[in-house]
Design brief:
alpha/beta; Arc Repressor Mutant, subunit A; ten-stranded mixed beta sheet; 12 strands; 2 domains
């Protein structure tokens, strides 16, 4: 037999099985009865086996081989129909699951506010969230392992920058707040000058947040002593709360609520420009599926609502 039977012949065979006669199958398919008979004969030659028992004056009877082929053909055509539905959905950008990478503090502080609103829109696709830092997520966007990356950038020259491999969409600026441990009995705000002799906490020596801190300090003519290094912002905040260091923390982590307990914002001298980091969405070049487009819009609103 042929390695793959002709689908047109299989469709004719299935019509004959369903209608019980070649004449009725021909009427349903818009063929003449002789064409149906020829299709069945050709299919039997291809298969090398009799599929139908033809008895004059009575309905056709399937052989054992015919019954097996009918079941297999039903399964094949059902799968083909499901495939076509999925292909049509993909062409209309209806994707079953989309992978979104995000840095940890966005996972804990931005997305819980955004995802319920996204779910309420009923856009169909399921979002799989992956906790990943920006530098680790960029190669995954380029390779196609991620459909969208929620990223941050401390310095304009740092990645992600626009390229042919991806598109960068600015979601807004997140303020960076200088904080120290709260002192319950303190009557006046903590000023920057009081923090210069304290220990500071920041990222590792070549991290973007550390380089931003040194650039900012150089402009102010100060030299903060960074003795504690961590890439984990929640650990950084815990160290500051414990009174072990002073540090720059993204305002999203403070939130003006319980996360701000135990820390106090340091007052900067007049004229000192506040610091920030950019929040970005990175995707492969091309139009985003509707659900990711909606996610980017909601995140833009969430980032821009963050106050220093």
């Amino acid at each position: 037999m042929k390695s793959q039977p002709d689908l047109k012949l299989l469709a004719t065979f299935l019509a004959v099985v369903r209608h019980g006669s070649m004449a009725e199958a021909a009427a349903a398919l818009g063929y003449v009865p002789s064409a149906v008979s020829q299709h069945i004969a050709a299919l039997e030659r291809d298969m090398g086996v009799e599929l139908l028992v033809r008895r004059p004056g009575s309905r056709l009877v399937l052989t054992a081989a015919g019954r097996s082929l009918a079941q297999a053909t039903e399964t094949l055509f059902d799968a083909t129909a499901r495939f076509q539905d999925a292909a049509n959905g993909i062409a209309d950008r209806e994707i079953a699951e989309l992978r979104v990478g995000t840095y940890p503090s966005a996972m804990s502080h931005l997305l819980p506010k955004v995802l319920p609103a996204l779910k309420a829109r009923g856009l169909g696709s399921r979002i799989r969230l992956i906790d990943v830092e920006t530098h680790e997520g960029l190669p995954k966007v380029k390779s196609g392992d991620m459909d969208l990356l929620i990223a941050y950038r401390y310095l304009p020259e740092d990645p992600p920058t626009p390229s042919r491999a991806w598109t960068v969409t600015a979601l807004g600026r997140e303020p960076l707040v200088l904080v120290t441990a709260a002192e319950p009995d303190r009557r006046r705000p903590v000023e920057l000058a009081e923090c210069l002799e304290r220990e500071w906490i920041s990222g590792h020596a070549h991290n973007a947040d550390r380089r931003l801190l040194h650039r900012w300090a150089g402009e102010l003519g100060i030299s903060p002593r960074v003795t504690l290094e961590t890439e984990d912002l929640h650990s950084m905040l815990a160290m500051i709360r414990a009174g072990l260091a002073v540090g720059l923390v993204p305002a999203t982590l403070l939130g003006g609520g319980s996360d701000e307990s135990g820390v106090e914002r340091v007052v900067l001298p007049p004229g000192v420009a506040p610091l920030h980091r950019e929040i970005l969405a990175v995707s492969r070049t091309g139009a985003l599926p509707p659900i990711l487009d909606a996610l980017v819009t909601l995140l833009t609103g969430a980032v821009r609502s963050v106050r220093s």
